Amino acid sequence: MEIEKEHISVNPTELENLSDAPFSGDEENGGSEERKTEINGNWIPATSITEAKINAKAKRRLRKNSSRDSGRGDSVSDNGETLKIGVVPTSPKGKLLDRRSRSGKGRGLPKKGGAGGKGVWGTPGQVYDVEEVDIKDPNYDDDQENCVYETVVLPLDERAFEKTLTPIIQEYFEHGDTNEVSEMLKDLNLGEMKYSVPVLAVSLALEGKASHREMTSKLISDLCGTVVSKTDVEKSFDRLLKELPELVLDSPRAPQLVGQFIARAVGDGILSSTYIDGYKGTVDCVQARAALDRATVLLSMTKGGKRIDNAWGSGGGQQSVKHLVKEIDMLLKEYLLSGDVLEAERCLQELEVPHFHHELVYEAVVMVLESTGEKTFKMILDLLKSLWRSSVITMDQMKRGYERVYCEIPDINLDVPHSYSVLERFVEECFQAGIISKPLRDLCPSRGRKRFVSEGDGGRLKLESY
Predict the structure, then answer these.
(1) In angstroms, rounded to a whole number, what is the distance separating the alpha carbons of residues 27 and 4?
(2) What is the pTM of this model?
(3) Residue 296 phi, psi dihedral angles, 5° rounding
(4) Are 176 and 215 within 8 A, CB to CB?
């Protein structure tokens, strides 16, 4: 058979791209002669071409599976055999979470510099510029460039108003800071309910103490001009006068108290002085008429429009010591004239100074020492007994009052010569009535009578036992 000879022009680097087709020529002959092929004028043995094709096929197979076998450490030897370097293969899950390139190229760094992947918004420290609006965008709107976004607070209705402002006013009765209340009210959208702020504050103060009413008057005065206007204040008092029949059910003294609020508002300058005159002859409600009469009386007691600062009195620790001493002294003198124990007890509680009740005990005992009759002795004893049994005066305050008398009895004795004997008698009566304890009674100082020279002590006085 005649052998066909092919004339192929192949570069040495193109050997690996040769096809996998079988050789042409007569390969069935079992002759020992080696067949050759001419390439570029050179005769190359057929075995060399066969080896080149095998190597090219192995390399193509290796590149095809490189993405799966890149981490296994496989390599191909010169003769086309696959070698294991000994690298432990990674798990499929580990490959899935690996951000390094799987193509076997590059330096093994994370893709996109670490800015790629699910949940990643960019490289650390990257700052995004303001996105410009595309005019050619189909959803583009001319008005969106001039649009201003603001937080809208809906106005409060009547139910939400009372539910929101009641805790604010009750908390104000504890701290007394009007500025804090003003800032909190400015954050709310009161709308047409502004005039209801004084109404709610006065309604809550009617059920509270005298100090709460004083704080309410200050709150209304400070809120006028910032949160509410003078027109709102007048409107609020108009509503209070209309609701007096309902307020009387909870607070029997509501007409007198509302009248004091009106007088205080006129004195503070937040309510017109002609406000009361506008109601003359037009009021049919008995409670409203009583409130207006009370306000008229209080305003007539002032001269030249002077502010009524003492309409409620200063509550608790806001009062000065001199003022408290004067109030307690007047309380005891009124009691000695009237003899009404319950009225004296009520006046003492209205002072709202339980930490200063020892002053009443001290002043009461001194009045007994300075008195000359038995009437004051018995009335003061009955008063202290009533205050002790009703727990208005505590044990600590009672003890402090008696100890103050014990310490100052030498000075009192200079003005009242028989003060020691009167004190011993009064202390003993208080102990028998259960007002003071036995240790407190034993602390009472005593002064013996003057001894004569014939008795052997030279006329010296006995030492005081206190």
Answers:
(1) 12
(2) 0.50
(3) -65, -40
(4) yes
